[in-house]
Amino acid sequence: MKILNKQIIKDVAGVKIKQLDIFSPDIAANAQPGQFVMLMASENGERIPLTLVNTDKIKGTLSLIFQEAGFTTQSLGRLNPGDSLYSLVGPLGHPTEIKKYGKIILVGGGVGIAEILPVARALKKAGLPAGQAGNHITTILGSRNKDLLILEAELKSASDQIYIMTDDGSYGRKGFTTDMLKELLSKDKYDLIYSVGPIPMMKMVAGISKEYQIKTLVSSNALMVDATGMCGCCRVSVFGEVKFSCVDGPDFDGHGVDWEELEKRNKVYSVQEKHICNLKKNNGDGSIFPRV
Ligand SMILES: Cc1cc2nc3c(=O)[nH]c(=O)nc-3n(C[C@H](O)[C@H](O)[C@H](O)COP(=O)(O)OP(=O)(O)OC[C@H]3O[C@@H](n4cnc5c(N)ncnc54)[C@H](O)[C@@H]3O)c2cc1C
Ligand code: FES
């Protein structure tokens, strides 16, 4: 659980995205694309889920890439090489189903781009051991502007074609990932779409691909507490059935996800999160009990 390396991937306009390489041979040995870990940065901290972006089974290391969103990810971002995480559990969740599909479109937005990288690499290779060609990968990456785009080179080498979309047109094409998705689907046939990013983006991707009846997997970013299927916090309705994102997911068929419910559930603690974040900041030690 020792941090070996730390890289600041982005620190622009208030957006901080960092990578930590962590020594954890057991998790690295068993990890598969699409799985995640649950970690605590400190003894008083919360448990948060982060995707296993890269693993080196020989060196026994794993890499996590995270955006500083609130208190826990900010605390994690303050750790340095030589420090250890308080706890780290994984690999968790079902791996993404890696097989030969044919033509695939990957759609990544914001820090979700980091989460599609391991899946892109595995899908590109799928089929190769049998001497066949791997899947044909078309990747669409989206960010607000050029400065916030991450992992372009890495995804380029895992893709046959790549398209960059920025909200302000400062790089690639101006527009959303879903604009490019619509364009591609109107011109060609695809066998699978895999998408990770903000909920509104995944919801739109699923809405568009449904018209073309293309299987669409999304990595649901439901709130998690225990990540063992016991607390029920990460409930997602898929085709009207209750699923737990941590043990049944995190990948689900995007055409069946009740997006409105997922959006609502993910905001359910936002008021408390703000309050707790302030208490932790005031106390300075991560504890949440008001001091008098
Ligand atoms: C399976 C899975 C994989 C993920 N992988 C990554 C990743 O690779 N990189 C990355 O940057 N982020 C990832 N996330 C999201 C990450 O867990 C949240 O950004 C983090 O928990 C925020 O915690 P915080 O205390 O810093 O922020 P908070 O202030 O607590 O919350 C900020 C926002 O983060 C989300 N969030 C908060 N707590 C949780 C929680 N326990 N579980 C899930 N979401 C939460 C909420 O939407 C909230 O509005 C993943 C989430 C899931 C479910
Ligand atoms: S996080 Fe508790 S059931 Fe999934």
Largest pleated sheet: 7 strands, mixed
Average of the residue pLDDT scores: 91
Report the portion of residues in β strands: 25-35%
Series of H and E elements: EEHEEEEHEEHEHEEHEHEEEHEHH
How many domains make up the coordinates?
Answer: 3
Overall form: globular
Please report the distance between the alpha carbons of the first and last residues. 35 Å
Q: Total number of helical segments?
A: 9
Write the CATH fold name of the largest domain. Rossmann fold
Small molecules bound in the structure, each named once: flavin-adenine dinucleotide, FE2/S2 (inorganic) cluster
Lateral arrangement of strands in the main beta sheet: 11-10-9-8-12-13-16
Which residues sit in consecutive blocks of at least 5 with pLDDT less than 50? none
Oligomer: single chain
Helix content: 25-40%
